[in-house]
Amino acid sequence: MAPVNVTVTGAAGQIGYALLFRIASGHLLGPDTQVSLRLLEIPQAVKAAEGTAMELDDCAFPLLSGIEITDDPKKAFDGVNVALLVGARPRTKGMERGDLLEANGGIFKPQGEAINAGAASDVRVLVVGNPANTNALIAAAHAPDVPRERFTAMTRLDHNRALSQLASKVGCSITDIKKMTIWGNHSATQYPDLFNAEVNGQSAAAVVNDEAWLADTYIPTVAKRGAAIIEARGASSAASAANAALNHIHDWVNGTAEGDWTSMAIPSDGSYGVPEGLISSFPVTCSGGEYSIVQGLEINEFSRARIDASVAELVEERDAVQALGLI
Ligand code: NAD
Ligand code: LMR
């Protein structure tokens, strides 16, 4: 079988460094799938990406069939099957929100165009670079020939954080928890839902039985974990973000476990009152290489208000990039 072409943007960055070795050792697509890596970087970082490629060579990974390094999106995405869009423009001092969206538009617009021009017909795109949901919206808008549903953004790190915080509160193992959902944006407004999650088959909210802890401790701890890591490490999460990116693509391609689901930010089809087209996080099951939104969940008043708040933020971001002519 031909190797799967995997493109990683921002390959010389810290997530790139945590990601590439695990892709090459089979953690993205499984132990039987050969991968060919394309590393996209800006010209100033191509040399650093070359250094990473030298180290990849030195691992002699049996599954790694080739590595190409480029600063040209057209070359990077030609024939791509899995595109991991990690490189983004971080917010720096004095930068307004509009400046950040505009700077990222300058990255995700040409990348969307290059995916449109050259990607393989089965391409799957995961946007990790922040603001991830809206960057995915920009890329998708510039790839009109690629089915919309192939553009996704990452909330799997939030999902994993939500599992870990819950396990530590109730003293259970991660595998005792099923049906966790992150709703909305990958931002501080995201909503980790314990009303539909289960601990050993029982409602997680009922097991916790402490709405004040849920509202005042659990939700903010999960939602602001990224900021807490930046504060502690002096840099944003890297290994855990890379791990979540592997989980996201692995489940999309290979399927979610029976009786469970995961969280992915995907183009809304209008489910749960989320405006169609917004890239928002939902509970999804994956099977046969496709995801579908879990339907029919009960959304109580507590959840409704929080989902609506996060979706309102996504609408604002969409309107801002629309006003800038980026979508
Ligand atoms: P980093 O600064 O270490 O690396 C980013 C890399 O992207 C740099 O090497 C840079 O040269 C490269 N880059 C910039 N513009 C590019 C372009 N146009 N094409 C190709 N490469 C380009 O950052 P990092 O720690 O690796 O984080 C990357 C992004 O991921 C950030 O936006 C960060 O906020 C985001 N992030 C998202 C999540 C999530 O859960 N969605 C979690 C952690 C980090
Ligand atoms: C995270 O959730 O760890 C990151 O998105 C934080 C950031 O701003 O890079």
From TrEMBL:
**Binding site residues for NAD(+):** G10, A11, A12, G13, Q14, I15, G16, N104, Q111, V128, G129, N130
Which domain of life does this protein belong to? Bacteria
Chain's gene name: mdh
> What does the entry list as the binding residues for substrate?
R91, R97, N130, R161
Which top-level enzyme class is recorded in the Swiss-Prot or TrEMBL entry?
A: oxidoreductase
Q: Where is the active site?
A: H186
Family listed: Belongs to the LDH/MDH superfamily. MDH type 2 family.
What is this enzyme's catalytic activity, as reactions? (S)-malate + NAD(+) = oxaloacetate + NADH + H(+)
Q: What does this protein do?
A: Catalyzes the reversible oxidation of malate to oxaloacetate.
Which keywords appear in this protein's UniProt record, sorted alphabetically? Answer: NAD, Oxidoreductase, Tricarboxylic acid cycle
**Originating species:** Actinokineospora soli
Q: What is its EC number?
A: 1.1.1.37
Question: What's the protein here called?
Answer: Malate dehydrogenase
Domain Lactate/malate dehydrogenase N-terminal intervals: 5-145
Q: Name one GO molecular function term.
A: L-malate dehydrogenase (NAD+) activity
Where is each Lactate/malate dehydrogenase C-terminal domain found? 155-321
Q: By its UniProt entry, which PROSITE patterns does this protein fall under?
A: MDH (PS00068)
Cross-referenced InterPro entries: L-lactate/malate_DH, Lactate/malate_DH_C, Lactate/malate_DH_N, Lactate_DH/Glyco_Ohase_4_C, Malate_DH_AS, Malate_DH_type2, NAD(P)-bd_dom_sf
A Pfam family found in this protein is Ldh_1_N
